Amino acid sequence: MGRFGTFAAALVLFAVTFGVVYYLNLPDEQRANPLAGTGIEKLGGKPLIHYVFVPPGELSDERLFQAAETYCEGTPGCEVRFWTDKDMTPTGEAETAAQTEARFATYRKNRFNGEEVLIRKDRDQAIRR
């Protein structure tokens, strides 16, 4: 390969490594939002409980887990409540009985053992991860 080829390969390796390390050390708000373009958005909540609107096309288990992990990042225990009707998604700290009834799914992360559970209205059993 020769000296130049070895040098070029080392330079490329350094550039890629530097880029990855730089990206991983960016503050969270500067990293790419994994939910960008999905229409999923947090509209309300309180500490450790998030009220999230999810468009009907984004209701896969994997997408709900991804949204929950995004909003719960860095917390030992957390809860995310999901709605498919934007008008019924709470925008403040409290939810009404009608909003509770309209809720589509709930995600909970156990603060003691880290177990993740997704409970959906359209399923008979909880999904555990």
Describe this structure in words.
It is a single chain. The protein has 129 residues and is of the alpha+beta class. The chain has two domains: 31 residues; 94 residues, no CATH class. The chain is built from three helices and six strands, in the order H-E-E-H-E-H-E-E-E. A six-stranded mixed β-sheet has the order 1-2-3-4-5-6, covered by helices on one side. A hairpin with a 2-residue loop joins strand 1 and strand 2. About 5% of the residues have low confidence.
Core attributes:
alpha+beta; 2 domains; 6-stranded mixed sheet; globular
Range of strand content: 15-25%
- Overall average pLDDT: 85
Largest sheet: 6 strands, mixed
Alpha-beta classification = alpha+beta
Blueprint of the fold:
Elements: H1 2-24, E1 41-46, E2 49-53, H2 61-72, E3 78-83, H3 97-102, E4 105-109, E5 116-120, E6 127-128
Parallel strand pairs: 2-3
Antiparallel strand pairs: 1-2, 3-4, 4-5, 5-6
Short description:
The chain is of the alpha+beta class. It has helices at about 1-25, 60-70, 95-100, and strands spanning about 40-45, 50-55, 80-85, 105-110, 115-120, 125-129. It has 3 helices and 6 strands; from the N terminus they run H-E-E-H-E-H-E-E-E.
